[in-house]
Amino acid sequence: MKGLLDGQIGVVTGAGSGIGQAIALGYTGQGAVVAVPDVNAQAGQDTVRQIAAAGGKAIFVAIDVTDRAACDAAAASVQSRIGPLRRGDLADTRPAGCGRCCWKMRSCRPCLK
Predict the structure, then answer these.
(1) Exposure string (b/e) for 28-43, b if CB count within 10 Å is 16 or more?
(2) Domain spans in the chain, listed from the N-terminal domain onward
(3) Sign of CA dihedral 87, 73, 50, 23
(4) β-strands 9-12, 57-62: how paired?
C-alpha cells in the first residue's frame, strides 16, 4: 500500500522528543522523508534511528532556532541533502525557544523581515 505522503519532504523542528518526534514518526510512517532539526543532537539522532528502524528515511540537522544564521545553515543543509521544499511539502516549525518561524522555505511567516 502506498503511503499518503510518498514523495513529500517534511521538516519538523524539535523532533528530538515529544510532539515533534511523534509528528516526524507519523510523517515517515506515511512515506515522507523527514528532516529532524533539533538543538539536542543526541535526541535528534535518536529520532532518526527510530525512523530508520521503522523503515523510514530521515536526516538530523543541528539547529538553534533562536540563531538566524543557524537557521539559514540548517535550511541549506536540508536542501543539499534531501532537496528543496516544494509546494505541498510539510513543515512543522514551531520552535520552543522563540515562538517565531525561522525556517527558510517558500512561504515563511511574516516574522522574517
Answers:
(1) bebbbbbbbbbbeeeb
(2) 9-92
(3) negative
(4) unpaired
